[in-house]
Model the fold of this input.
Amino acid sequence: MSTQSVPFLTPERYLEIEREAEFRSEYLGGSMYAMSGASRNHGRIVAAAGSALHNQLRGKTCEAAITDLRLAVRPHHLITYPDIFVTCGPDRFFDGRTDTLVDATVIIEVLSPSPKNYDRGEKFLFYRSLPSFREYLLIAQDEIRAEHHVRHIDGSWVMREYSSLSDEIELQSIGCRLLLKDVYERVEFEAAS
Done:
């Protein structure tokens, strides 16, 4: 274990570095963490779900952001890149630039092997502090499975799982539907050994 101290970064300094960086990093509590690359399946799921949402949101006040926009969760000192997130109403940005939003209504993460427990746990906890956040959808890339979390009026969250290509997920807060057969259309699963 290294005994070298890691300098604390302010969110503003992180954004200065990140805007010039070749590779993406997430910011959490004063530190930067490199993000791993995505698999082909991950990219296919993000493209399919993002395209479906984009088409369904045409002419509406909500808009989908796919992959390259950052989302800042101020109360938890988190700046991250959700796979897809949807904002409704006027966009609010972290600073004078238009690359880091500070709120979302729907967030979709495609689960990768290493950070999947973080996406389900601590990251979900952090996201819940966003004022407009209503739905969280986690989509597996190694099997047909989605976990849909919905915030109720009393603030409680209810989760429903989907595991069939015939399943349809209704994202009520934005008036959209995702069909798992479409989301997984080109995904190739590894054969069981």
